Amino acid sequence: MPLRLIFMGTPDFSVPTLLELVAHGHEIAAVYTRAPKPGGRRGLQLQPTPVEEAARKLGIPVLTPKTLKTEQALAEFRAFEADAAVVVAYGMILPQAILDAPKLGCYNLHASLLPRWRGAAPINRAIMADDAESGVMVMKMDVGLDTGDVAMAERIAITDNMTALDLHDRLSPLGADLMVRAMAALERGGLQLKAQSEDGVTYAAKIEKAEARIDWTKPARAVLRHVHGLSPFPGAWSELDDARVKILRCELAQGSGAPGDVLDDQLTVACGDGAIRIIELQREGKARMQAADFLRGVPLKAGSKFT
Known about the structure:
Elements: E1 4-9, H1 15-23, E2 27-32, E3 37-39, E4 45-47, H2 50-58, E5 62-63, H3 71-79, E6 84-88, H4 96-100, E7 106-110, E8 118-119, H5 122-128, E9 133-140, E10 150-157, H6 164-188, E11 203-204, H7 220-229, E12 236-240, E13 243-253, E14 268-270, E15 275-283, E16 289-290, H8 291-297
Parallel strand pairs: 1-2, 1-6, 2-5, 6-7, 8-11
Antiparallel strand pairs: 3-4, 7-9, 9-10, 12-13, 13-15, 14-15, 15-16
């Protein structure tokens, strides 16, 4: 029999999992997501989350509580009498009473190969740390920060041309398929759980804006991974002729010079060791553009330098 589930998620990353669970016949009793935030052209309209938009199209009840720690919130959650809860980038801590409410538990889809990169920004951190691979894992939740027993995993290689958005877009459908398989195993009573290793634990701290400035004294590969790990948001940036420029995509290139020096008319920039060539960038207040389009509008002066 299909499971009766509560789904908890917020961003675009979560939506494929919700859609796949519905497509495979599970009953979604309710969707929990974050409350709408001001947005739109003037920032005056409340914008529902991508998960809320998807749930309403499916006719699923949507709840946006500010906290799950009250007796009222717990009673409301329990009243759905769910077999299990599926959590995908919800963005709110689940207290123990909520975790205990579904009879089969709460299961999280996490975008890393646990125990590496527990926490808020696993996709960004994996790229920035020059990891060779990433993946998704299904975990039975406990009160720790991504410390629960793991059930299933899928892995993919991280290539040098992969940005955080690219990796996000690969992992999201992969995770949806993985969670559907996990719920099928749970339904059959065959979902096997294994405690996480105590070795190799790392934490994916939230990305801070102060991290976004590019350090050109680092080796070219480290600069490339920094750029790609922060693309498209918040965007790694530098200053060119006193104007702030976000660099969104680049590649390793031949060349050497003082860190930050522009080496040619193709936006090759010297690093502490080696160089990168900028492929896509964005001037402050402008749309993102290819390097060739940028150079047509902003001819580089002799001795131009990123600082």
